[in-house]
Amino acid sequence: MENKIVIFSNIKGGVGKTTLCALFASYLAENGVPVITIDADLQASLYRHRQREQDVAADVKAPWNVDLLDTADSKQLKKVMEQLKKVPGIVLIDCPGNLNDRNLEYIYKNADTAIIPISFDPDTVDATGIFIKALKSVSKANLIFIPNRIITSERKSEELRQRAQTIELLGLVGTVMPTVKQSVAVKRYTTLYPLEKTQLDIVEPAFRKIMEII
């Protein structure tokens, strides 16, 4: 399969990029797509999640690999990115949520697609705008936005208007996916076991469309 580098990133914390990265890895694997994940976040949340699960269920075969990537060593980072570009399949990279690490530019430059989780509160919208500008200055990656952890119950008319306006603006620079609603089932992700039906029902509309794009 043709190699694709797909990053999950945004400078705003709490938008669920690690959770979506893990769920999408499982979704790809369950659909027969070769996939590996790279945890480049300083917190190493995805990698540590996998380690905790394997400590409890050592006999369960992992459906996809998780490797750590240290972005502090620019020389090593360049070498690893060259290796990842040769992987026959999709490489998902969970990126740090900041713009201070200049070495991240090596990841951004090699990304084919950037998946950017968002919510519609003003702080996240503003931060996402800053991130888009910075990303586009160094990368030609296709931008995909996932409205995530969205409360889908009826909102005030002004909130709905602002939400529609945000979606319209994001659509000018990338593709906006169907909403992933707020759900305990989605937050309760696993890196070892198949997606639960409840999880699949929530994420599949967005994930299916992403697969078509990448």
Structural class by helix and strand composition: alpha/beta
Unreliable spans: none
Give the strand content: 15-25%
Distance between the termini: 12 Å
**How many individual helices?**
8
Could you tell me the number of beta strands? Answer: 8
Gyration radius, in Å: 17 Å
Give the SSE order as H and E letters. Answer: EHEHEHEHEHEHEEHH
Helix content: 40-55%
Shape: globular
Mean pLDDT: 93
Major sheet: 8 strands, parallel
Organism: Butyricimonas hominis
InterPro entries: CobQ/CobB/MinD/ParA_Nub-bd_dom (IPR002586), DNA_Partitioning_ATPase (IPR050678), P-loop_NTPase (IPR027417)
Protein name: ParA family protein
Pfam family, one: CbiA
Describe this structure in words.
Helices cover 44% and strands 18% of the residues. The protein is α/β, with parallel strands linked by helices and 214 residues long. Strands 1, 2, 3, 4, 5, 6, 7 and 8 form an 8-stranded parallel β-sheet that branches. Strand 2 (35-39), helix 2 (45-56) and strand 3 (65-68) form a beta-alpha-beta unit. It starts with a strand and ends with a helix. The relative contact order is 0.21.
Give descriptors for this structure.
single chain; globular; 8 strands; alpha/beta; 8-stranded parallel sheet; 214 residues; 8 helices
